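>> Question from a student workshop board

For tomorrow's exercise we were told to take the sequence and the ligand below, predict the bound structure, and bring the output to class. My setup keeps failing. Could a helper post the expected result so I can at least see what it should look like? The ligand is zinc ion.
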Amino acid sequence: MSIHRSAKKVFSKVAWHAYNTHRKGFFYRSQLSKTAALFNAPRETILSFQRERLKQLIRHAVRTTPYYRDLFKDFGLKLSDLLREINADSTDISKILPLEKQAVRKQLKNLCSELFPTYQRIENATGGSTGTPLQFYQDRTYWNQRNFSVYYFDRWAGWDFGEPQLIIWGALSDVNGDYWKQNLNRFWRNQHWLNGFHLSDSAMHITFKKMQRWQPKTILAYPSSLYQFAKFISDNNLTPKWKLKGIISSAEMLHLHYRSLAETVFDTKIYNRYGGREVGLIAMECAEGRMHINCRDIYLEVDSEDPYTKPGDLLVTQLNNYTMPFIRYRIGDIGRLSDEMCPCGNQLPILGELLGRSTATFKTKDGTLIHGGYFTQQFYNIVGVNQFQLIQETFEKCVLKLVVNEQWTAETSNHIVQKIQDVLGAEVSVKIEFVDEIPLPKSGKREFTISKVT
Ligand SMILES: [Zn+2]
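>> Workshop helper replied:
Here is what the output should look like for this input. Compare the format with yours to find the bug.
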């Protein structure tokens, strides 16, 4: 390792230490060790911790927020009865109405705790798959705890304080900040950014050449942008001379063809990280390829008759954000639990299946609702498609926009049309439009499916 790179790493470690001491206090390291110990503990230990946090949060929400106070009153719920139902035999909070995005939009003020003065609220927002931004509040405790969890889980992928990291990311709200402040932050964190919004060949080439000298240890990326970068490297017969410990993929669905190309080109494993700006890190993939649920910060439910066999909407309860409690928040993704014990040795429960960012819900003429994740799934393993977007224009007509490559065939086309007609009806026309690109919406999260009917 060059002297320059070693010095940069040492400098960055010291800067991280200063930053964490400033934000989280002088004893943050011992808190970090406690966090790790809990995540590594036997399953019953962490579940019992989670139950206590859940009770505390519900008690706090009902006592200090108008929204939950009214909700309990309207539904005739008694706090003491409900808390009694949270015990080692069953953790049942299903009597509390799930929190919909619509309610967050309409009841923003009523969802905030009266205990927190306005100046303690940290405003945040998400673009959402509908393109309608959702505004909400978090507090310093939430952010500190969120960071502890991210530090712990990112280490599974080889990340550590001060290690050089390439970031391929692009949410406008992340990139729009003060330019020099942003660059300063990237510098002390030892990060290099490639903007996922404008992945031109020249930007990718410049980054590739820089990485040959800079030698990143990990990459954090949107999977679609990571895929584009891997494809650029592969198409141009370039060989990365850096040895990565791992890649963290986040914020979008990690498709199999993204994974296989990027893992081959970068010669390392991708660790899928699942979370949302509203609630933080929800689950992280381990070395054995299972998604472990972050039970320290999150209580996760599946809105389904049988959460272990039938996928349903994920309902997320965030256990640390007391300024604005999110209880049973319908985040918009679909999943299924698993009761498996993971061979990696970690005993955190497992999210058995994750059906991506739930996008649009389609509706057939007879009123049947078809979840957008169905269509997204039809494109798994189809190598001829780089990008797609399915738009339901009317009950009778869909438009399928495709960015294809040389492996695209007429059979693939027939197969996909068939799969769409299987659920929407044989009489529905599917018009395929081949396009050069499908532009990103402002939020930066791709909209795979759009329904103008619903
Ligand atoms: Zn595992």
